[in-house]
Design a protein that fits this description.
Elements (H helix, E strand, L loop, with lengths): L11 E4 L15 H12 L3 E5 L9 H10 L3 E4 L4 E4 L2 E5 L4 H13 L4 E4 L4 E3 L4 H7 L7 E2 L11 E4 L6 H6 L6 E7 L2 E6 L4 H12 L6 E5 L5 H6 L2 E4 L5 H6 L2 E2 L7 H8 L4
Parallel strand pairs: 1-2, 1-12, 2-3, 7-8, 12-13, 13-14
Antiparallel strand pairs: 3-4, 4-5, 6-7, 6-9, 10-11
Protein name: Cof-like hydrolase
Keywords: Hydrolase
GO molecular function: magnesium ion binding; phosphatase activity
């Protein structure tokens, strides 16, 4: 694989978490990935996390790496929350009227859901479909189906399979919102204008950079805008085929040292 982009311009590299940095089903963070991020930091390249997860649901091994390497740039909840060195640069909560409309529909159709805030998760009901889908992400949640009434919610995650996608599409409940599937049995619903790309743009502007100074790695459908917007977008070998079509480069599988291999070939580690 030849790399035809100017790498001297890269000042910050963002990484998705699940199936990019970390294999959640195996609770596995490759040693080569840790080494790659450590070397980037030592060379003065900023490292950021850009994930669909809320900060409160980061895996323990990822948190350990963040603490040890001093990572302090976060685009979380699919760009709904943006933090730099402990400062919140932007936070986009779903409007209450839209949440009422969604929850009324979910309750009517027996769809359980998780409400994602920056520091906590509240669910409607610990049903089988919810727990089997969400527990690999986090078991640190409580039951409170009306949490949204008094608190800001960045994302709401209803749990249903693809057979109900058409029902949702025809229900006119996504006004100003979008649904991005992250699991066979669940989608993220958040601000229609929201994305990891928007969050990264906010970070870049804060640092006096443009998107040409940014590289990003991802694997899922919620990474499409991010890889399209940055200067160099890299899809993991294990990534979704639609994402690979948008990426500048495709690296190896996460369990075959995909991050390290690309950064090494690029001369950044």
């Amino acid at each position: 694989m030849s790399i035809n982009h100017s790498l001297e311009k890269i000042k910050i590299v963002f990484f998705d978490i699940d199936e990019t940095l970390f294999v959640k089903e195996k609770d596995y963070l490759p040693e080569s990935t840790y080494l790659a991020l450590k070397t980037l930091r030592e060379k003065g390249v900023l490292v950021g996390i850009a994930t669909g997860r809320a900060r409160c649901t980061f895996p323990a091994k990822v948190n350990q790496m963040i603490d040890e390497l001093g990572v302090d740039v976060f685009v979380t909840a699919n760009g709904q929350n943006v933090e730099f060195q402990g400062q919140t640069l932007a936070r986009y909560a779903i409007a209450k009227d839209k949440l009422y409309k969604l929850v009324e529909f979910f309750d009517l159709h027996g769809i359980d859901y998780a409400q994602v805030a920056n520091t906590e998760i509240k669910i409607s009901n610990p049903s089988k479909i919810l727990t089997e889908s969400f527990n690999p992400i986090s078991k640190n949640y409580q039951i409170d189906p009306r949490y949204f009434e008094q608190n800001d919610v960045l994302q709401i995650l209803p749990f249903y399979d693809e057979s109900r996608d058409e029902l949702i599409a025809q229900a006119n409940i996504l006004d100003g919102l979008k649904a991005v599937r992250w699991h066979p049995n669940s989608v993220d619903i958040f601000d229609k204008e929201g994305s990891k790309a928007r969050g990264i743009q906010i970070i870049a502007e804060h640092l006096g950079l443009d998107m040409g100074n940014v590289m990003a790695f991802g694997d899922g459908l919620n990474d499409i805008e991010m890889l399209s917007a940055v200067g160099i977008g890299v899809a993991m070998g294990n990534g979704h085929e639609l994402l690979k079509q948008q990426a500048d480069y495709i690296t190896d599988h996460i369990e075959e040292n995909g991050i390290y291999n690309f950064l090494h070939k690029a001369g950044l580690v």
